[in-house]
Amino acid sequence: MKIVWIYPDLLSTYGDQGNTIVLERRAALRGIPTETVHLRSDEPVPPDGDVYLLGGGEDRPQILAAQRLRNDGGLHAAVQRGAVVFAVCAGYQILGHEFGGEEGQPLPGLGLLDIRSGRGEQRAVGEVVGDVATELNVPRITGFENHQGVTHIGPNAWPLARVVAGVGNGGGDGTEGAYSGRILGTYMHGPALVRNPGLADLLLRWAVGAELQPIDDSWAGRLREERLNAVLTSG
Ligand code: GLN
Predict the structure, then answer these.
(1) pTM of the model
(2) Which CATH number fits domain 2-232: 3.30.420.10, 3.40.50.880, 3.30.70.120, 3.40.190.10?
(3) Do 1 and 50 form a contact (C-beta atoms < 8 A)?
(4) Mutation pick for ligand 1 pocket among 95, 147, 186 (CB with most ligand atoms within 8 Å)
(5) Confidence band (pLDDT; 50, 70, 90) for 209?
(6) Catalytic residue numbers, as ranges
């Protein structure tokens, strides 16, 4: 399985790179060999990856990353082939039709996911908890958010989760993240796939096109429980 970690030099905040490590590890535990490309922003996007990961970023690196990915076209080609894409925060906004620049001006995104983002009045900072869309079969997710962006989901994408705590998409509809086909975006750092092994397994299932052997997640489960309790009982 070829994993492409897009532009760690521009998009990687709050440990988002941990998402690659968890995918590699959870694939290896099922006997699936992986190869990860750490793709710098001056390199062409290989169109033959199985899973593409994008992280969060400050406004300027986000704008630069969007320009380079639009000009490159490799991610579009990969999506047309049916590749899996998982994007966090700035990466999530970039996948949409447009996102807000440093002054809130609308800037073009990649148009790979039917969402539109702009800038909200207030930064959303803190813990997020969400109940995932039932058809995805992933337990309650938890993460850390820090963004000014507000995201609206169009008719060709679906909310990843319903917010239980925190802000998420912030458009007043109580949703967090979005997905369509094998493209999934979220505001959750953490890293999201470390905190939520169920989400990591969803991406792996999509990539291999089959159910996966279960893994003993008792330690991860205890840490998740602690985190969820801490957020949901903090008032
Ligand atoms: N710059 C974007 C925003 O503030 C994304 C931030 C992030 O990726 N943490 O909305």
Answers:
(1) 0.97
(2) 3.40.50.880
(3) yes
(4) 147
(5) very high
(6) 89, 189
